[in-house]
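JOB MANIFEST
job_type = single_chain_structure
chain_count = 1
residues = 350
[input]
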Amino acid sequence: MAGYAPLFRGFTPMLEIDVDGRPIASPFWSILVSCKITDNEGEEVDRISLKLDDRFNAIELPRKGAIITARIGYRERLPLIEKGQFKVTKFPIEGSTEGGEFLMIEGEAVDLRKDAKGEGRKAYKKQTFGAIVQAEAKAMGLQAVVPESLAGIAFDYKLRWHQSRVDFLTRLANEIGGIVKPAGGKLIVQDRGSGKSAGGQELAPIMIMKSDCISWSGDPSGRMQYGEVHATWRDPKTGKLKTEKEPTGLEGPARILREHYPDQGRAKKAGAAEKGRINRETGNASFVIYGRPEAQAGAPVLAGDFRSGLRGEWRATTVEHNFEPGENGGYTSTVSAKAKEDGKRGKDDA
């Protein structure tokens, strides 16, 4: 990071909001108190929250289901970056005699609420993960995108029983180290920790130095560590159970998975997925930085001139973009991160 310079200090933050494809009227900006856009990794829903000054009770209540499009960035670095489309889900009202009156408008990313009830049942016998995803995506009216590394993994039997399609697929993906996220009219499946966007592009690393930060914190101690993951499978030739051992690179006892897998490949995949989950919990960090509109959840985080324990490489699990208009306002991004899949935070982390 030699020659690194703080980003966007002294720039002019900008926010654009469209509702159902139409730019909002100029009076909106006089009543906007704050806007928070939350970008979550994987299947966790992305959200938007607008807080409006409702002191005169003159704001027309929004239409539930209206589509909000948000773009954010800086006047000195146009064009602004679109942060997604969100469907209005609720609009709570709050107030007090001393604090004033406010209307909140909250939304969730479009496509993530389709088929929420997931009624009925569907059994899959001797089907690959890719085929199951394709079938469930078709029922939701979405196009499925599944990487080759996961698509060919076969399941003997899986049952969706009165469960949402996304929850069902998420459960299956967790078993094999994947994540599921509907986005932009598609049902995207990725290898967890791949560092790619929902569209499959490599995510640019989020480089953070102390000069970028308003505040930072972290806990490198993490949760209980395991030295290995043991996954069992039944050898069809001998009928005996065999064990695949996946080293985690950590110190501690073995983590034994309860399920017996149908073949060696599935056992290896399950062990690797559990290894990644364990390693992600070996540490966490949070950085509040001057607004970074291109920062996305799932991207590598490169922490530079911090002390050991924070210095090194992490992976962003959530990025919150917070915009407050006015002379005393501004634009900040809160990057929440966990350890990488291998549990290491880079060669500089002593």
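[summary]
Residues 82 and 136 are 28 Å apart (CA to CA).
The chain is about 15% helix and 45% strand.
exit_status = 0
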